[in-house]
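Notes from the 1:1 (GR / supervisor)

We went over the backlog. Supervisor wanted to see one worked example end to end before approving the batch request, so GR pasted a single chain during the call. The sequence is below; no edits were made to it. Supervisor asked that the structure be written out right there so they could see what the output format looks like.
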Amino acid sequence: HLERIRRVNGKMAVSNEKIEQTIESALRNGCRKIDLFFMTGLPKQNYDDAVACVEYCRYLLEKFPGENRLNFFVAPLAPFLDPGSPAFENPEKYGYKLFHRTLEEHRRALTMPSWKYILNYETDSMSRNEIVEATYESALRLNLLKREYNLITEADFMTLDYRIKTARNILRKIDEIMKLPEPQQNLKFQLIRKKIEDVNKASICGEEELSWPIRKGADYYSVAKVLLELFFQEWSLLFNKIKLSLMKR
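Structure output shown during the call:
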């Protein structure tokens, strides 16, 4: 939601005004759902920057009053920076600090008890712990906002609120356990293993929010048909341009 951070990270280097015009145009022309994803843990983004994305979501809901086709999500880039990407190969240049580089280090990370310890980076503006806390805090605030604007049901709000708070509390318990000697760690983890498994399966958004409205009868065949029609339209336009060019010669 902050133009300066998008510019630093080379993503959507346009103004918020232009993005909002695009949203308005999409809604006006019958788009049935628009998903907006906000990321935590970007270089040059601090904790306050990250959680402030929820206030920008509020701004959009006020700009488009009564609009329930806008769907908001917040999450970190997880669990890994893509090996082979510029940020992975030159993390300091792009504002990252890596914890895992080799295949074996990534494999071991995946055996850790929570996504905080799987996450293989922190940034020049947030520690790994701050990235995790900003993600949970943003998710809690966003859930409250969705309830306020009737974007989710009260039951969905309560379910998600419980999931997020439980996950946050379990992670804090894991932090305490990780400070113990390894034999004691194993014993403590055995006692809360079921809770850890349940939390790791839980999402910080409602599963139904990720569903897209598909017309009845839509299938892969109809999608392929549309793509073929578009292909032939483009080819026809190109062919006509070539023909006109040859005629001028």
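Supervisor's comment: The mean pLDDT is 85.
Batch request approved.
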